[in-house]
């Protein structure tokens, strides 16, 4: 991670001997108090290291009037990191197949997790080489060492700002850049649906760049920051109150903290004091595996998730190296003396430890008995179950070693430098080693170690979950991983079933279910929105849809507006109750007409049949039967050919009927006019002329229909204008003028027939049909005049039903008014069916 300023393990590659020449010895002088505490072993190439063996949980503000107090808290994990470095160097020196002609040495100092101390230690080291840890310290050291092209390899600095080769050309690291950690964190919170998260961080380059990257990356995943808050390294009560007040007043329950272990301790103490629960902590890799936080936080961190850097399952021989502490090395090395005294809370005889911890001093402690055993106590120094930073240290040493090995393998004339020259592995310039380090590719513990053009390793993180064991202790359980080398969308793998956490949600707005769309709230983050139901005819089949999708023309949303379903198809079907009734009426009317034909044919020689133009009566009955059957053409699913047939059939059949009635009425009227003396009008109304008049009256209707069909024929159409959820299959007229011309011509014939029948209604004849035709015409007009407004105001199958009803009602009116009285006489009163009766006035 890019921790705070001084958290630095720097490999500063130190060369054998001082950087000062013999002639410059008098001028190469260190000013000020010289810090004697260090760990040193000579070699052909000496690698310098800075480790935060001490740190202060509260930074003191410098007054520049007095000497700053020493940092006093021991960091035993850093001691393990330091001795991992010595172990790796000694391991390499023992190998006969690797760097056999070069002996590595080390010179290690305490950075005290502080930039000024780190710079001071660095300047003491750079008579050789160095390694560094945290981001802030790395930047400070690089700006000091960059001018000398001294390579620096960090095991703990993760700030993405350090990837700039233009600004930091001599920097490399075995710690992945925060750019990858941030992508992993954004994908993590998005995976669990936490779109409303709080971002907090210590005032440092690490947290500043990390939060800035998070805000940029989160936009692509629909994750919003409920708040961002930076707190000072000096976490006094005022700073804690400001931070906790922000957390308490905001609605976000998920908090991502970019800080180190020491800052998190202060935050947890205040959280515990305020009894704040129900928070889901997301750890940056700086404290994702810091077990010491668990001991002081109770269950506040239960369920915490965080990405930890890649772990080595085991580094063979490291545990033995860490535990092989003999009394001589403990008394001789101040770092180990302090560790021993702090572990057993006692004081060694002739102790060289000058660091005091807490309120006690070493002078107040009892003397160590000499019987203390490290096997009887727990210390992070011996804990090799989470070799993460230690693994980075191990890889950093091997990076320098492999660069030296590649330099040793160089052949004159084939080298990478001017004129194919090679560098001397025992006397080289810093930039020459840097060249080989930049091109290093090697394996450590069976795993490939590669670097990109920025000097960053390929990122791999373990997703850790803080779980409580039955005895109350902490178990760091790996529940997933992030591998930047995998394709996008597949690089985050999570095993949900292994995770232990408090159940919670952290969203600004609840997710919009299918059937709704997201409506952004003006002036608020994109994660804050309202859910609006999809408009009519539109659906959304996913959660948090930004837009609703319209259904196709033949589909319609279901009740929940989640899916498009086929629209209801509507037409007057033979299976509808209404269709069945109209169909039965049509057939019945046709049968009655044919029955009357049969009756008339059987009694064709009787006066009542012969008295009123028998031939026209038969034609009228047949045409009426056709009119009844035409109604069937309007029932059933419309098609183009059916639409072409039914309108002309309707118009022509009624034109035939009314033309017959008109001819019959004309004959009756003219027959009585012909009785006047000298009248020969009947010669124009003989049988041929009557048939011709019927044909003529119908021919005009045929011409009208032909003109209609040739210009704008009727056709089937799927109508969705009236009911969006229903497809009305209907016959459209094509030409409204054509339809109303057909209907108007029928009305014209009917008007003529009514007028003539009205004139002949009182003529003296017992079998005079004129009055019956008059009644039939009145019914006909009543039906069709009523039809027009009803037809215009209905839609769908009811429009068709109105049309069929008008056809059947008018046909039935003609049939009953004209032929029912005749059938009554023929069948029930045959005594009136005689010539004598027909001649009576």
Automatic annotation (TrEMBL):
Gene3D superfamilies attached to this UniProt entry: 3.40.50.2300, GPCR, family 3, nine cysteines domain
Cellular compartments per GO CC: plasma membrane
Taxonomic source organism: Oryzias melastigma (Marine medaka)
Name the UniProt record assigns to this protein: Olfactory receptor C family, x3
Subcellular location as annotated: Cell membrane
Chief place of localization: membrane
Keywords: Cell membrane, G-protein coupled receptor, Glycoprotein, Membrane, Receptor, Signal, Transducer, Transmembrane, Transmembrane helix
Record carries keyword Cytoplasm: no
GO MF annotation terms: G protein-coupled receptor activity
């Amino acid at each position: 991670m890019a921790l705070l300023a001084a958290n630095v393990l720097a490999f500063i590659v130190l060369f054998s001997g001082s950087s000062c020449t013999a002639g410059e010895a008098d001028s190469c002088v260190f000013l000020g108090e010289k810090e004697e505490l260090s760990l040193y072993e000579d070699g052909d190439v000496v690698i310098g290291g800075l480790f935060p063996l001490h740190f202060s949980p509260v930074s003191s503000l410098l007054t520049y009037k007095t000497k700053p107090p020493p940092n006093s808290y021991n960091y035993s994990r850093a001691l393990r990191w330091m001795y991992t470095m010595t172990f790796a160097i000694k391991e390499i020196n023992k190998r006969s197949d690797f760097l056999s002609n070069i002996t590595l040495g080390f010179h290690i100092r305490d950075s005290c997790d502080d930039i000024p101390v780190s710079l001071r230690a660095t300047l003491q080291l750079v008579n050789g080489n160095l390694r560094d840890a945290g981001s802030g310290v790395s930047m400070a050291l690089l700006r000091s060492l960059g001018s000398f092209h001294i390579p620096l390899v960090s095991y703990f600095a993760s700030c993405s700002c350090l990837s700039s080769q233009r600004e930091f050309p001599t920097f490399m690291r075995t710690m992945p850049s925060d750019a990858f950690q941030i992508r992993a964190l954004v994908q993590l919170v998005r995976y669990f649906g936490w779109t409303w998260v709080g971002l907090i961080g210590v005032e440092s380059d690490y947290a500043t760049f990390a939060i800035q990257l998070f805000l940029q990356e989160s936009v692509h995943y629909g994750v919003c920051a409920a708040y961002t808050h930076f707190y000072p390294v000096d976490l006094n009560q005022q700073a804690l109150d400001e931070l906790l007040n922000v957390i308490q007043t905001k609605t976000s329950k998920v908090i991502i903290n970019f800080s180190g272990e020491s800052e998190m301790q202060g935050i947890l103490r205040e959280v515990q004091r305020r009894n704040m629960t129900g928070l889901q902590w997301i750890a940056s890799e700086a404290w994702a595996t810091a077990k010491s936080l668990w001991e002081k936080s109770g269950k506040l961190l239960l369920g915490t998730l965080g990405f930890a850097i890649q772990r080595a399952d085991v580094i063979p021989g490291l545990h033995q190296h860490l535990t092989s502490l003999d009394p001589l090395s403990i008394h001789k090395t101040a770092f180990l003396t302090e560790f021993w005294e702090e572990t057993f809370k006692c004081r060694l005889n002739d102790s060289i430890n000058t660091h005091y911890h807490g309120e006690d001093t070493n002078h107040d402690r009892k003397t160590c008995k000499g019987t203390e055993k490290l096997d009887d106590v727990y210390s992070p120094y011996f804990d090799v179950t989470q070799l993460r930073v230690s693994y980075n240290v191990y890889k950093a040493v091997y990076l320098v070693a492999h660069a030296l090995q590649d330099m040793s393998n160089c052949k004159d004339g084939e080298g990478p430098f001017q004129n194919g020259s090679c560098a001397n592995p025992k006397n080289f310039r810093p930039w020459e080693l840097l060249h080989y380090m930049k091109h290093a590719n090697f394996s450590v513990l069976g795993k490939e170690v590669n670097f990109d053009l920025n000097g960053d390793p390929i990122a791999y993180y373990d997703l850790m979950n803080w779980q409580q064991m039955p005895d109350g202790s902490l178990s760091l359980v790996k529940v997933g991983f992030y591998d930047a080398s995998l394709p996008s969308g597949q690089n985050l793998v999570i095993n949900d079933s292994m995770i232990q956490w408090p159940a919670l949600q952290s969203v600004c707005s609840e997710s919009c279910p299918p059937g709704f769309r997201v409506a952004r709230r003006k002036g608020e983050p994109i994660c804050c929105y309202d859910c609006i139901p999809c408009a009519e005819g539109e659906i959304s089949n996913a959660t948090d849809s930004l837009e609703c999708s319209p259904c196709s023309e033949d589909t319609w949303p279901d009740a929940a507006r989640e899916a498009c379903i086929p629209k209801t198809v509507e037409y007057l079907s033979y299976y509808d109750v209404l269709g069945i009734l109209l169909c039965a009426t049509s057939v019945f009317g046709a049968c009655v007409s044919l029955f009357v034909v049969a009756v008339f044919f059987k009694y064709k020689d009787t006066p009542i049949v012969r008295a009123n133009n028998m031939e026209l009566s038969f034609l009228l009955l047949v045409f009426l039967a056709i009119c009844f059957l035409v109604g069937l053409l309007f029932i059933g699913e419309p098609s183009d050919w059916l639409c072409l047939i039914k309108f002309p059939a309707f118009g022509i059949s009624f034109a035939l009927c009314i033309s017959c009635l008109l001819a019959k009425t004309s004959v009756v009227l003219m027959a009585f006019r012909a009785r006047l003396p000298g009248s020969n009008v009947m010669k124009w109304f003989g049988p041929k002329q009557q048939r011709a008049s019927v044909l003529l009256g119908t021919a005009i209707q045929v011409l009208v229909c032909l003109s209609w069909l040739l210009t704008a024929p009727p056709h089937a159409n799927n109508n969705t204008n009236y009911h969006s959820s229903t497809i009305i299959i209907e016959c459209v007229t094509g030409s409204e003028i054509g339809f109303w011309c057909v209907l108007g011509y029928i009305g014209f014939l009917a008007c003529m027939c009514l007028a003539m029948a009205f004139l002949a209604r009182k003529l003296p004849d017992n079998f005079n049909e004129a009055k019956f035709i008059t009644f039939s015409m009145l019914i006909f007009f009543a039906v069709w005049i009523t039809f027009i407004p009803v037809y215009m105001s209905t839609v769908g199958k009811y429009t068709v039903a109105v049309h069929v009803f008008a056809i059947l009602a008018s046909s039935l009116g003609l049939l009953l008014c004209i032929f029912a009285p005749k059938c009554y006489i023929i069948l029930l009163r045959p005594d009136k069916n005689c010539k004598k009766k027909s001649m009576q006035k």
